[in-house]
Design a protein that fits this description.
Keywords: Amino-acid biosynthesis, ATP-binding, Cytoplasm, Glycosyltransferase, Histidine biosynthesis, Nucleotide-binding, Transferase. It is found in: Cytoplasm. Belongs to the ATP phosphoribosyltransferase family. Short subfamily. This is ATP phosphoribosyltransferase. Its EC number is 2.4.2.17. The protein has 224 residues and is α/β, with parallel strands linked by helices. The chain has 2 domains: 126 residues, 3-Layer(aba) Sandwich (D-Maltodextrin-Binding Protein, domain 2), CATH 3.40.190; 89 residues, 3-Layer(aba) Sandwich (D-Maltodextrin-Binding Protein, domain 2), CATH 3.40.190. It has 8 helices and 9 strands. Strands 2-3-1-4-9-5-8-6-7 form a 9-stranded mixed beta sheet, sandwiched between helices. Helix 1 packs across helix 8. The chain starts with 8 loop residues before the first strand and ends with a helix.
Amino acid sequence: MKETVNKNITLALSKGRIFEDTLPLLEEAGIKVSESPEKSRKLIIQTSDPNLRILILRASDVPTYVQYGAADLGIAGKDVLIEHSAQQPGGLYQPIDLNIARCRLAVAVRKDFNYKDVVKQGSRLRVATKYIQSTREHFAAKGVHIDLIKLYGSMELAPLVGLADAIVDVVSTGDTLKANGLVAVEDIMPISSRLVVNQASLKNRGVFLQPLLDAFSRATNLHE
């Protein structure tokens, strides 16, 4: 009996900017998404390609789903991938920087906090962030001693109530910082979103994945 070949492909995405910025890339590949995750509660979304479905996940979970094979490929920010790799190294293939959802990882403080002087004097800083690995590496390279406080949201609140001296967070327009009386004082790195691929999927079913990888690559070049 002839074995049936599994042609189905699962793409993991997060809601918001990454999802919205991925739509034009999919459209360049001739793929339309059936509905918006902002308007639907569905966590699995079908597309115009009967062999491609999309999982809607929390951004930090995308690389985990891909690494363990629950998704064949996914799109995640460099910030998320650095943190994931620190915990689970070597598990993901990252073939394409899609150059979408661009922003930056930055240090921010209250407007009345003299960050330069504090760092210059060698004082110990309390820094709140969910980007533990990137933050630790950044301040270690500067020779600044820090106490890390891990938070998962509402980062801007930490300096306002005395929980931390500074935060490290993703900054896009800076409007949220400004609205909360904070200012970015130092950029750590530029961030963009990358395509990540499950290595076993690529090895065993690369013939089905490769056309989509090629389409993403072409679409990315068109949008640069």
